[in-house]
Amino acid sequence: MGDLFTDAAAKRQAEAAPLAQRIRPRTLDELVGQTHVLGAGSALRRAIEEDRTPSLILHGPPGVGKTTIARIVAERTGAEFEELSAVSARVDDVRAVLQRARDRLGGNGRRTILFIDEIHRFNKNQQDSVLHAVEDGLVTLIGATTENPYFEVNAALLSRCSVIALEPLDEEELAQVIRRGTAALKVGASDEIVALIADRAGGDARSALSILELAVETARAEGGELTAAIADDAARSRPLRYDRAGDRHYDYTSAFIKSMRGGDPNAAVYYLAVMLEAGEDPRFLARRMVILASEDVGNADPMALVVAVSAAHAVEHVGLPEAQLNLAQAATYLAMAPKSNAAAVAIWSAREDVRERGAEPPPASIGDSRSVAGRRRRPNELYVSPHDDPSQFGIDHLPEALRGRRYYRPSGDSEEGERGNRNG
Asked: N vs C: which end of the chain shows fewer Cβ within 10 Å?
């Protein structure tokens, strides 16, 4: 009776499974997207087709086919497919899988593919528990991760796997997936609806099929046809692909900084919006702008630092959501401000000299009169204030060994250049 109940449950589970699960591709020909690594004649495709798939780490955002590829590999090779989720699996679970793999290989020669979802969540001990099995060929490991594996996976394990970067599906590829979904649901959908769902899915095939399924169920519940309005309501908002500690965080931070540096206020405020919408720490954003105010604007517009620091204070005193206004004001101001990295280059160059040459002693005339060197100064080495003798203004105050060195070179344009010309 237990088997009967198990079989019935499996059948009903398959019928009730989400659309994405029901129409999951079973062959490489059915797989949509990832042609850059699985196109005809590619090394990975040939390895799969010739049953010599290496251990893999599949890296990419959700809904691009990581689990599907693992299952296709298992089906193609005829290997036993064992699946673990790094979120819930323990070291004992891994050991149990490896023991079954050992028994299977010794008993009938059947190989095992071990698929570990979210492998970046495995701690060092868990990753180490897999390492020797991969090294000895006991299992073929396929790990899936949305994080950069070079940051999150042990170097020893990583060196025994091929890292495959998967990409979000483009709108044409998503349209293929959606059309396959409409066929499975036995419903028609106009090009407008397909394009709308593809746009809202954000490169995620699973998200596209979830939107479609919800929209179709809604239309049927209302007794009407699938419309763009229903699909739009089902989609609600496009999913954000962002992580606060991984590649997306660094990509958007870089784009934000480079947009301000490049004088593009529209791009700067857009990337600011993405990061705020994704839950980025506003204090981190404010700190980046304070740094940029000196590094990339500098004395070309000294008010830039005042604006950036004021925005940072506003974040502390006001907080979100209102502080988004202060951050946007600072970001657009910095983007439109004249640019100079002269102050940044000056300190970088000066510190490089210090690291290479050590600390050269200052001229006796400007050292502290209470120091040993100051007390030994000769009459011609006494300090003369430029307030008393204007000819002292602008003389070289650098150590003797560095006389003539120029660290600070004001930019030719803007307020900085004007002051430089007056003082030069």
From this structure: N
Q: What is the pLDDT of residues 249-304, one digit of tens each?
A: 788 889 999 999 999 999 999 999 988 988 888 999 999 999 999 999 999 999 99
Instruction: Give the span between the Cα atoms of 238 and 202, in whole angstroms.
Output: 6
Residues 78 and 200 in one domain: no
The domain total for the chain is 4
DSSP code of 128?
H
57: which strand partners? 143, 163
* pTM assigned to the model: 0.58
- The Cα 57–Cα 163 span in angstroms is 5
Q: Is residue 41 domain-shared with residue 151, that is, in the same domain?
A: yes
Based on the domain organization, do 231 and 255 belong to the same domain? Answer: no
CA pair distance 65, 63, nearest whole angstrom: 6
Q: At what angle do helices 247-261 and 265-277 cross, to 10 degrees?
A: 150
Contacts of 287 (CB under 8 A, 6+ apart): 312
Burial of 208 (0-12, 13-18, 19+ CB in 10 A): buried
For the chain, helix, strand, coil in percent to 5 are: 60, 5, 35
Q: Is there a single domain that holds both residue 285 and residue 227?
A: no
> Do residues 53 and 124 share a domain?
yes
Buried-exposed string 137-150: b where 16+ CB fall within 10 A, e elsewhere: ebbbbbbbbbbbbe
Q: Say whether both 161 and 104 belong to one domain.
A: yes
- Together in a domain, 78 and 133: yes
Q: Which residues pair with 112 in a beta bridge?
A: 80
CA dihedral 381, 383, 385, 388 (to 10 degrees): -60
Give me the DSSP letters along 353-412.
HHHHH--PPPPGGGS-TTSHHHHT--GGGS---TTT-GGGTT---S-GGGTT-------S
Buried b (16+ CB within 10 A) or exposed e, 249-276: beebbebbbebbbeebbebbbbbbebbb
Tokens of 269: 């405020």
